[in-house]
From TrEMBL:
Record-linked InterPro entries: Ig-like_dom, Ig-like_dom_sf, Ig-like_fold, Ig_CD22, Ig_sub, Ig_V-set
Organism: Salmo trutta (Brown trout)
Ranges of residues in domain Ig-like: 114-189
Taxonomic superkingdom: Eukaryota
Gene3D superfamilies the UniProt entry points to: Immunoglobulins (2.60.40.10)
PROSITE patterns: IG_LIKE
UniProt protein name: Ig-like domain-containing protein
Length: 313
């Protein structure tokens, strides 16, 4: 991440300096928020980051928020510097993050303002122009930090490594186009194709902590002349059996939530993860004329925090 002008706000020896004031990061990637701090006397006993603050109420350490379970790492010496690492970024992680520290002195509490504004964005292929001269744009909701290089794919093959735009005088409706940011080639944008059958997953494998919540991000494409009749997730399949909708499988009721819109988003949320939830998950949809399902996403649920940290690094 590139650095912006540091911000120092403080009084009487209290201060927090943030390395950067704002960051735009890619959904599914990892981000680090850094700061240094000073205080007049005493010993620092507690350090943490938070996003929510109410008047008269002590802020809650992000490490206690189940939405971040298994995705946070704190690095600091409890003397003058601190770094927060957030892995597997989600769009709902977009917020202003502030650092707070507490010393053993009376009234020895301080929060650094204004904090770091984090915006998390996915990638989307947008098309503009006429029939003969079209431009594809790898679109984001904020300008990615670091001026990244974009990679373009046609029918799954790399065709260009340059900017966020792709120009051509001919785009076939039967060909798929996608893009990614260099260094994050596994975080592809949902493929654009008017007459293709595609299921896209943000991650092909996920490791999550027991008791946490996981979102299996998913999007899909189908020919424009078809209409979705049924869409669901399943874990068991075979040549001699029809896949069964997870919502009808004993043990999953109240445990899963289908976040999709039955148009293009097929994200699945699983709450209060159990070790037995480790499996391969696949999305299936049926239109007015065809049936299609994507390759499986491997979910591994672990009770070992060091194991998941190792896998996410």
């Amino acid at each position: 991440m590139s650095n912006c002008v540091s911000v120092v706000l403080g009084q009487n020896g209290w201060s927090v300096t943030y390395t950067t004031q704002s960051i735009c990061a890619l959904k599914g990637s990892t981000v680090e928020l850094s700061c240094s701090y000073t205080y007049p006397s005493g010993t620092v006993t507690t350090t943490f980051w938070f996003t929510k603050m109410e008047t008269g109420v002590e802020p809650e350490d992000l490490g206690q928020d189940p939405e971040y379970a298994g995705r946070l790492e704190y690095h600091g010496d409890k003397k003058n510097d601190h770094t927060l690492r957030i892995t597997d970024l989600r769009e709902k992680d977009s917020a202003t993050y502030k650092f707070r520290f507490i010393t053993d002195q009376t009234g020895g509490k301080y929060t650094g303002s204004p904090g770091v504004t984090l915006s998390v964005t996915g990638l989307q292929v947008m098309v503009t122009g006429g029939h003969q001269d079209k431009t594809l744009t790898c679109s984001t909701t904020c300008t990615l930090t670091g001026n990244p290089t974009y990679i373009w794919y046609k029918n799954g093959h790399k065709v260009k490594e340059d900017t966020s735009t792709l120009h051509s005088d001919y785009f076939s409706d039967a060909e798929s186009y996608s893009c990614a940011v260099k260094g994050h080639e596994d975080l592809l944008a949902p493929a654009l194709c008017k007459n293709c059958w595609i299921v896209n997953y943000t991650h092909q494998s996920i490791c999550a902590l027991k008791g946490s919540t996981v979102d299996i991000s998913c999007s899909y494409t189908y020919p424009s002349n078809h209409e979705i009749k049924t869409a669901f997730w399943f874990t068991k399949w075979g040549s001699d059996m029809d896949p069964k909708d997870l919502s009808s499988v004993p043990g999953y009721k109240g445990h899963i939530e289908y976040l999709g819109d039955k148009k293009s988003d097929c994200t699945l949320r699983i709450t209060d993860l159990r070790l037995s939830d480790s499996a391969g998950y696949r999305f299936r949809f049926i239109t007015s004329g065809e049936k299609f399902y994507g390759s499986p996403v491997s979910l591994t649920v672990t009770g070992n925090l060091s194991h998941i940290s190792h896998l996410l690094l």
